[in-house]
Amino acid sequence: MASESRGAFDELLATLQEVATRFAGDEWMVTSPDDVSEALRSILHLLSTGMETQFEDDPAHPSFREIVTPWRKMLGDNPDARYHDAVVHPAGTYAVRGNTGGAIYVSFTVEAGGVDGGMAERTAGVLNDSELDVAADGSFELTIGGPPRDRAWLALPGDARRITVRHYWEQETAPATPPAPSLGLAITLVDGEVPERPLLPTDAVVAASIRRMATFVRARTVESIPPPGSGDPPPFVSRVPNQFAPPIPPGNHALAAADAAYSMAPYILGPDEALVMRVQWPQCRYGGVALWNRQLQTFDYLRGKVGLNRAQAVADEDGAATVVIAHRDPGVPNWLTTEGRPFGLVFW
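Predicted structure:
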């Protein structure tokens, strides 16, 4: 029997086939079997993330869900961080509570634009823990949306769609997985005329959710990550291998922490080459570097040293640190492994 949800499911399958052909193919300069497999893996990670975070969206009854994990990654994660997000509606006022969990930095950002699974178009606001009243046990509360408040409040513009929460830890010993304390994240609609998803998963409701998945995957592959060499990268991104752009705040760049500073460049290394980087850590809440593949996923930090933060880095006599990216251990303390990849991305 024909149904709207079956039609949407067929559309999702067609989208996955198109994205697999293009994003994991010649158009994106993905040619070797290993490169193809990694690109297909990233597409499946995206589908899984969309299922986890957005398939059952309801801005009248939102909940914070983990965006990435050590085994499900997308769009630039970090070994030292945990990320959560929740859907919101610009007409709503939401009460939020949580806990720092010992994190050195916690922030909330408003993602604006990108309807029904689409990619956020900009970061429309940021609030970090310095602007919260954090109790001795790490707990805090804030309000998102509604009338302005003097403190612990974030505005929701007319195109606000989601809230992203970042927790960063800076520990001297790299954990096998990111710290996993109870962060107690909860969000509740307390005021405002916000559309509610029907309780019964009707044909139309499920069809809309399936189409949201197709949009989610497409928007984070062929629509947002241009083929190599095309499009204009953000000003903090260098296209020159092994040379970095100056670290700068990302402005309102979508899915970025507006109160951070970023710098990224590709690395290209031959079999017996290494990239030696010198860093003088700035005065900041958190400082670190991580290695990504071309699909913006961290390398496997559960089984190898592919990221380093300021507390973990062994300093030189002048207080700076020398960080080395190489295929094999060169016998230095601040070595990051390429996992054998001749090409990757370095994100500070």
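Summary: The CA atoms of residues 5 and 206 lie 6 Å apart.
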